[in-house]
Design a protein that fits this description.
The protein is mainly β. Helix content is about 10%, strand content about 60%. It has helices at about 1-15, 35, and strands at about 25-30, 40-50, 55-65, 70-80, 90-105, 110-125, 130-150, 165-180. Strands 1-2-3-4-5-6-7-8 form an 8-stranded antiparallel β-barrel. The radius of gyration is 18 Å and the shape is elongated. The two termini are about 30 Å apart.
């Protein structure tokens, strides 16, 4: 978790210290309402880095939502190309990453981390001068390594078999975000 927070702070520091002018109208903050409804609060920030390009990151976390034995911390950086020629309006495509650390217990225990990279796409609707709705999705390859065993078993009983790792093609982003453009 500390590692994920460190990456996010480093990303923000790179934007703040980056050469060139960063004006207030070139920044937007967002929260993914879909994650918020699922009791996984999220907060993101996007910066305009060119006439048709933005770069940003979102952090999401949960700790025992609905009294379930579940913890998750996730950082999702993204680079977007806007077809409209003006960032934060209409359609875009992008490259999205995901770094997650999780510890979940259902019938099985899943404890591990995941790293993914893929393509994203979306559409932004302007509600007011500063408020937008962003509908987004992304698919990519997700690599994971985790401890996986039955809930009432002891991992030591499995030896090395408790550890699993692999990769799969899957959705790595899905969201309905409320975006506030700073001016």
């Amino acid at each position: 978790m500390k590692r994920i927070c460190s990456y996010f702070i480093l990303l923000i520091a790179l934007f703040v210290l980056a050469p060139g002018k960063v004006a207030a109208q070139m920044i937007a903050i967002r929260t993914d309402m879909l994650k918020d409804v699922l009791m996984t609060p999220s907060l993101g920030v996007d910066f305009v880095v060119g006439e048709k390009h933005t770069i940003g990151a979102e952090v999401a976390f949960n700790n025992q939502p609905w009294n379930m034995d579940m913890k998750l911390v996730s950082v999702t950086p993204e680079f977007r190309y806007w077809f409209n020629g003006r960032p934060f309006t209409r359609q875009y495509v992008g490259v999205v990453g995901n770094l997650s650390v999780y510890d979940m217990t259902f019938d099985h225990v899943y404890n591990g981390d995941a790293l993914g990279l893929g393509l994203s796409f979306g559409h932004v609707w302007t509600l007011t001068k500063r408020l937008n709705i962003d509908l987004s999705a992304g698919i990519g390859v997700l690599g994971y390594r985790q401890k996986y065993y039955y809930k009432n078993d002891h991992p030591a009983d499995y030896g090395e078999r408790v550890n699993s790792k692999g990769h799969m093609l899957m959705p790595i982003k899905l969201g309905v975000s409320l975006v506030y453009v700073l001016r």
